[in-house]
From TrEMBL:
It comes from Zooxanthella nutricula. Keywords: Signal. The lineage of its organism: Eukaryota, Sar, Alveolata, Dinophyceae, Peridiniales. Signal peptide: none annotated. This is Solute-binding protein family 3/N-terminal domain-containing protein. It comes from the Eukaryota.
Length: 238
């Protein structure tokens, strides 16, 4: 409690751009969904109230770490983000794959080829993975998910990278023009995180790690997935 909520309130950084983890707003205007509920459960386990600190995009949430704007966060774990944030093992995961023109013969496995152009939302967890792992294809990065879709459609790019549920929903924008590929190039590992203390203390990190394990084993994560209507779109991490 002293490390994670030194002010007597647990400030939880919430990424509003992940519509599977934040599915709406409560009556008082706070974010609602699996991630906010997890934050409240963490605060309850610590014996303190929760204050949700929302951010429009995950990169803004991560950048706010240096200012101490939150105590814990709930975002996709990634090595680049782990330089600032101590992550637990994932509590749930979301497949990332590609949307392609319906006539495309490309598969997930052969997308990284010379001359291939892939639209992506800049600094999303899947975009960070692509930035590290693509060797030949060109990544066309946009500031928002909708901007990435528009670049893919308007510029006639070869593929749009994204989370499978969002890509599936976006098929309705231009029915019959595109399809979502089977398989996935990575799974975004949604995890709990806290700031890395300057003194190297691990009490807060160890508490969150145990909380994440218990949340999976007790069925809490699956319960919240079902409660918020994202069954089949989110999976409990193994």
């Amino acid at each position: 409690r002293a490390q994670l909520a030194p002010g007597g309130v647990l400030r939880a950084g919430i990424n509003l751009s992940n519509v599977l983890l934040v599915t709406g707003r409560s009556a008082d205007g706070d974010p609602a969904g699996l991630a906010p509920d997890m934050a409240r459960r963490i605060a309850s386990a610590l014996g303190v109230p929760a204050k949700l600190v929302p951010f429009p995009h995950p990169d803004q949430l991560c950048d706010a770490a240096k200012d101490g704007a939150w105590d814990v966060c709930l975002i996709g774990a990634d090595p680049a983000r782990a330089e600032k944030i101590a992550f637990t093992d994932a509590y749930c995961e979301i497949q990332a794959t590609y949307m392609v023109p319906v006539a495309s013969e490309r598969t997930v496995a052969d997308m990284d080829a010379q001359g291939i152009r892939i639209a992506s939302k800049k600094k999303g967890a899947f975009d960070l993975w692509l930035s590290r792992n693509l060797k030949h294809a060109e990544l066309v990065q946009e500031q928002t998910l909708d901007g990435a879709y528009d670049a893919f459609h308007d510029q006639g790019l070869d593929a749009l990278a994204g989370l499978r549920p969002k890509l599936a929903a976006d098929l309705g924008k231009h029915p019959g023009r595109y399809r979502v590929l089977d398989g996935h190039f990575m799974a975004v590992q949604q995890a709990l995180g806290c700031l890395r203390p300057a003194d190297g203390a691990r009490a807060g990190q160890d508490f969150l790690a145990e909380f994440a394990r218990n949340a999976k084993q007790s069925g809490l994560v699956q319960e919240l997935i079902d409660l918020h209507g994202v069954t089949g779109k989110l999976s409990v991490a193994t």
